[in-house]
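DEPOSITED CHAIN:
***
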Amino acid sequence: MNAATKPVLLAALLGLAACAQPAPTVAPPVVDPYASTGGGAVFQGDLAGGVLGAEATAQYFRGTVGDTVLFPADQTTLTPEARSILAAQAAWLTRHTAFTAVVQGHAEETGTREYNLALGARRASAVQEYLVAQGVAPGRIRTLSFGKERPAATCSDEGCYAQNRRAVTVVTEAAPPAVAMAPVASAAPAGGVVGAGM
């Protein structure tokens, strides 16, 4: 190698060295402390709101069981389709006793406010009576009438009226009962009386 090519070669090697990346650091392996404890996870029952307990949710009740029954015009009589939906609601409520229900009665926009409130109340009562007859405890179901105040659809034709003649069962999980705490009695100091002045 001659003296003229040495500086060029040295510059090229220094350039390559500057571009080289440091060796990546190797992370230590993850150690699973439960890996050698036997047969893996053990199923211990449904988890509320999880995949295993997905049926025990208000969303499941609304979407899968069905929360709405429809009525013919000016009627409170349950149709065969309504009875089928209510039988499924009763079965769900029987399985999931931690839930309570409010049955909301609704009416279409025709008629007076008072008439529709009364009609909504009778529709909600018809649903409540059916659920109780299917074995749901009466104390778990309340009724409420909205009359024509909360329509499911807003227009002035039979298609909208039919959607608004309904009763909706809204379920909520009951709060666990409150545990009463006993008052804590303070002990008197040894050899003295509590509250005595000195």
